[in-house]
Amino acid sequence: MTGKIITITGGPRTGKSTLVKLLSERLGAKAFLEGEEKDFPSRVIEDIKTGNRTFELILWFRNKEVDDYLKALEIKKSGGIAILDAFWATNDVYVDEWVSDEFEKDVLNNLAKTDYELLPWPDLVISLYSDKNKIREFATAGGREFELNDNFLQKQVDLNNTHENYFRKLNKPNIKFINRSELDYLNEKDFDDLVVEIKKKLDI
Protein backbone atom coordinates (compact mmCIF):
# COMPACT_ATOMS: atom_id res chain seq x y z
CA MET A 1 0.00 0.00 0.00
CA THR A 2 1.16 3.50 -0.80
CA GLY A 3 1.81 5.51 2.36
CA LYS A 4 -0.38 8.48 3.29
CA ILE A 5 -0.27 11.56 5.51
CA ILE A 6 -3.46 13.02 6.97
CA THR A 7 -3.39 16.27 8.92
CA ILE A 8 -6.25 17.39 11.12
CA THR A 9 -6.28 21.18 11.32
CA GLY A 10 -8.57 23.74 12.88
CA GLY A 11 -8.73 26.40 15.51
CA PRO A 12 -8.16 25.54 19.15
CA ARG A 13 -10.60 23.10 20.75
CA THR A 14 -12.38 21.79 17.67
CA GLY A 15 -11.73 18.14 18.52
CA LYS A 16 -8.58 17.56 16.47
CA SER A 17 -6.87 15.21 18.90
CA THR A 18 -9.98 13.09 19.42
CA LEU A 19 -10.37 12.64 15.67
CA VAL A 20 -6.68 11.73 15.27
CA LYS A 21 -7.00 9.06 17.95
CA LEU A 22 -10.17 7.59 16.46
CA LEU A 23 -8.84 7.56 12.90
CA SER A 24 -5.47 6.12 13.88
CA GLU A 25 -7.21 3.21 15.59
CA ARG A 26 -9.53 2.58 12.66
CA LEU A 27 -6.89 2.95 9.93
CA GLY A 28 -3.98 1.38 11.80
CA ALA A 29 -2.09 4.66 11.53
CA LYS A 30 0.61 6.33 13.59
CA ALA A 31 -0.83 9.26 15.56
CA PHE A 32 1.12 12.46 16.22
CA LEU A 33 -0.54 14.58 18.91
CA GLU A 34 0.18 18.17 19.86
CA GLY A 35 -0.20 17.32 23.53
CA GLU A 36 -1.90 18.82 26.56
CA GLU A 37 -0.78 21.42 29.08
CA LYS A 38 1.28 18.89 31.05
CA ASP A 39 3.28 18.06 27.91
CA PHE A 40 4.51 21.62 27.25
CA PRO A 41 7.53 23.35 28.81
CA SER A 42 6.55 25.72 31.62
CA ARG A 43 7.81 28.70 29.63
CA VAL A 44 5.53 27.79 26.72
CA ILE A 45 2.56 27.56 29.12
CA GLU A 46 3.48 30.98 30.48
CA ASP A 47 3.64 32.39 26.95
CA ILE A 48 0.18 30.99 26.15
CA LYS A 49 -1.39 32.31 29.36
CA THR A 50 0.10 35.79 29.22
CA GLY A 51 0.10 36.37 25.47
CA ASN A 52 3.70 37.52 25.78
CA ARG A 53 6.67 36.32 23.71
CA THR A 54 4.43 35.27 20.82
CA PHE A 55 7.46 35.07 18.54
CA GLU A 56 9.07 32.28 20.57
CA LEU A 57 5.70 30.59 21.16
CA ILE A 58 4.92 30.30 17.46
CA LEU A 59 8.50 29.26 16.72
CA TRP A 60 8.41 26.52 19.39
CA PHE A 61 5.22 25.00 18.00
CA ARG A 62 6.45 25.37 14.41
CA ASN A 63 9.60 23.41 15.25
CA LYS A 64 7.59 20.63 16.90
CA GLU A 65 5.15 20.45 13.99
CA VAL A 66 7.91 20.27 11.37
CA ASP A 67 9.76 17.62 13.38
CA ASP A 68 6.60 15.50 13.62
CA TYR A 69 5.92 16.00 9.92
CA LEU A 70 9.40 14.79 8.97
CA LYS A 71 8.76 11.64 11.01
CA ALA A 72 5.40 11.28 9.27
CA LEU A 73 7.13 11.47 5.89
CA GLU A 74 9.34 8.54 6.88
CA ILE A 75 6.24 6.53 7.81
CA LYS A 76 4.67 7.39 4.46
CA LYS A 77 7.85 6.36 2.67
CA SER A 78 7.66 2.95 4.33
CA GLY A 79 4.05 2.51 3.20
CA GLY A 80 2.33 3.43 6.46
CA ILE A 81 -0.27 6.02 7.38
CA ALA A 82 0.48 8.97 9.66
CA ILE A 83 -2.13 11.29 11.14
CA LEU A 84 -1.23 14.58 12.82
CA ASP A 85 -3.33 16.98 14.90
CA ALA A 86 -0.90 19.88 14.42
CA PHE A 87 0.19 21.09 11.01
CA TRP A 88 3.01 23.47 10.07
CA ALA A 89 0.76 25.34 7.60
CA THR A 90 -1.35 26.71 10.45
CA ASN A 91 1.49 28.93 11.66
CA ASP A 92 0.52 31.63 9.15
CA VAL A 93 -2.78 32.01 10.99
CA TYR A 94 -1.12 32.60 14.34
CA VAL A 95 1.44 35.00 12.88
CA ASP A 96 -1.31 37.15 11.39
CA GLU A 97 -3.40 37.07 14.57
CA TRP A 98 -0.78 37.37 17.30
CA VAL A 99 2.38 39.04 16.02
CA SER A 100 2.41 42.84 15.79
CA ASP A 101 6.14 43.47 15.51
CA GLU A 102 6.86 43.79 11.78
CA PHE A 103 10.40 42.41 11.99
CA GLU A 104 9.27 39.32 13.90
CA LYS A 105 6.37 38.88 11.48
CA ASP A 106 8.73 38.99 8.49
CA VAL A 107 11.03 36.40 10.09
CA LEU A 108 8.16 34.01 10.76
CA ASN A 109 6.54 34.57 7.36
CA ASN A 110 9.83 33.85 5.59
CA LEU A 111 10.20 30.68 7.63
CA ALA A 112 6.66 29.64 6.69
CA LYS A 113 7.46 30.31 3.03
CA THR A 114 10.46 27.98 3.32
CA ASP A 115 8.27 25.28 4.91
CA TYR A 116 5.83 25.52 2.00
CA GLU A 117 8.65 25.24 -0.51
CA LEU A 118 10.44 22.30 1.13
CA LEU A 119 7.69 20.20 2.71
CA PRO A 120 5.26 18.25 0.52
CA TRP A 121 1.54 18.83 0.99
CA PRO A 122 -0.36 16.11 2.90
CA ASP A 123 -2.46 13.57 1.05
CA LEU A 124 -5.52 14.83 2.93
CA VAL A 125 -6.18 17.85 5.12
CA ILE A 126 -9.26 17.76 7.33
CA SER A 127 -10.06 21.28 8.49
CA LEU A 128 -12.37 21.48 11.51
CA TYR A 129 -14.30 24.55 12.55
CA SER A 130 -16.83 25.17 15.29
CA ASP A 131 -19.06 27.70 17.04
CA LYS A 132 -18.40 29.28 20.44
CA ASN A 133 -20.58 26.87 22.42
CA LYS A 134 -18.82 23.82 21.03
CA ILE A 135 -15.40 25.38 21.62
CA ARG A 136 -16.36 26.07 25.25
CA GLU A 137 -17.56 22.47 25.61
CA PHE A 138 -14.27 21.09 24.30
CA ALA A 139 -12.22 23.52 26.40
CA THR A 140 -14.05 22.43 29.55
CA ALA A 141 -13.37 18.79 28.78
CA GLY A 142 -9.84 19.36 27.50
CA GLY A 143 -7.91 19.82 30.71
CA ARG A 144 -6.13 23.09 29.89
CA GLU A 145 -7.18 25.36 32.75
CA PHE A 146 -5.96 28.53 31.07
CA GLU A 147 -8.42 28.04 28.19
CA LEU A 148 -11.49 28.55 30.39
CA ASN A 149 -10.93 32.29 30.83
CA ASP A 150 -13.60 34.25 28.88
CA ASN A 151 -11.07 36.52 27.18
CA PHE A 152 -8.96 33.56 26.16
CA LEU A 153 -12.05 31.74 24.91
CA GLN A 154 -12.97 34.67 22.67
CA LYS A 155 -9.48 34.61 21.20
CA GLN A 156 -10.02 30.92 20.42
CA VAL A 157 -13.26 31.76 18.61
CA ASP A 158 -11.54 34.47 16.57
CA LEU A 159 -8.71 32.09 15.71
CA ASN A 160 -11.26 29.50 14.65
CA ASN A 161 -12.80 31.91 12.16
CA THR A 162 -9.44 33.09 10.86
CA HIS A 163 -8.22 29.52 10.48
CA GLU A 164 -11.26 28.44 8.47
CA ASN A 165 -11.03 31.44 6.15
CA TYR A 166 -7.30 30.93 5.66
CA PHE A 167 -7.62 27.31 4.57
CA ARG A 168 -10.58 28.05 2.31
CA LYS A 169 -8.45 30.60 0.44
CA LEU A 170 -5.35 28.40 0.12
CA ASN A 171 -6.33 26.80 -3.17
CA LYS A 172 -4.65 23.55 -2.19
CA PRO A 173 -5.87 20.06 -3.13
CA ASN A 174 -7.59 17.57 -0.85
CA ILE A 175 -8.91 19.83 1.90
CA LYS A 176 -12.09 18.60 3.55
CA PHE A 177 -13.99 21.02 5.82
CA ILE A 178 -16.03 19.69 8.74
CA ASN A 179 -18.35 21.77 10.91
CA ARG A 180 -17.91 20.24 14.36
CA SER A 181 -21.03 21.98 15.64
CA GLU A 182 -23.09 19.79 13.31
CA LEU A 183 -21.14 16.54 13.22
CA ASP A 184 -20.42 14.26 16.17
CA TYR A 185 -17.84 11.67 15.21
CA LEU A 186 -18.27 10.03 18.59
CA ASN A 187 -21.56 8.92 17.07
CA GLU A 188 -20.84 5.57 15.41
CA LYS A 189 -22.73 6.28 12.19
CA ASP A 190 -21.22 9.74 11.74
CA PHE A 191 -17.75 8.34 12.26
CA ASP A 192 -18.30 5.35 9.96
CA ASP A 193 -19.52 7.67 7.20
CA LEU A 194 -16.45 9.86 7.65
CA VAL A 195 -14.08 6.88 7.48
CA VAL A 196 -15.72 5.66 4.26
CA GLU A 197 -15.27 9.12 2.72
CA ILE A 198 -11.63 9.34 3.81
CA LYS A 199 -10.82 5.90 2.42
CA LYS A 200 -12.41 6.85 -0.88
CA LYS A 201 -10.46 10.11 -1.10
CA LEU A 202 -7.17 8.35 -0.33
CA ASP A 203 -7.93 5.19 -2.31
CA ILE A 204 -7.15 2.91 0.63
Summarize the helices and strands and which ones pair or pack:
Elements: E1 4-10, H1 16-27, E2 30-32, H2 42-50, H3 54-77, E3 81-84, H4 91-98, H5 102-118, E4 124-129, H6 132-142, H7 150-169, E5 175-179, H8 188-202
Parallel strand pairs: 1-3, 1-4, 2-3, 4-5
Please tell me about this protein's structure.
The chain has 204 residues and is of the alpha/beta class. It contains eight helices and five strands. Helix 3 (54-77) runs antiparallel to helix 4 (91-98), helix 4 (91-98) runs antiparallel to helix 5 and helix 6 (132-142) packs across helix 7. The longest helix has 24 residues, at 54-77. It is globular and about 45 Å long. The mean pLDDT is 88.
Structural class: alpha/beta
Please provide the ordered H/E string of secondary-structure elements: EHEHHEHHEHHEH
User: What share of residues are in beta strands?
Assistant: 5-15%
In spatial order, strands of the major sheet run 2-3-1-4-5
Main features:
alpha/beta; 8 helices; 12% strand; 204 residues
Structure described in brief:
This protein is of the alpha/beta class and 204 residues long. The chain is built from eight helices and five strands.
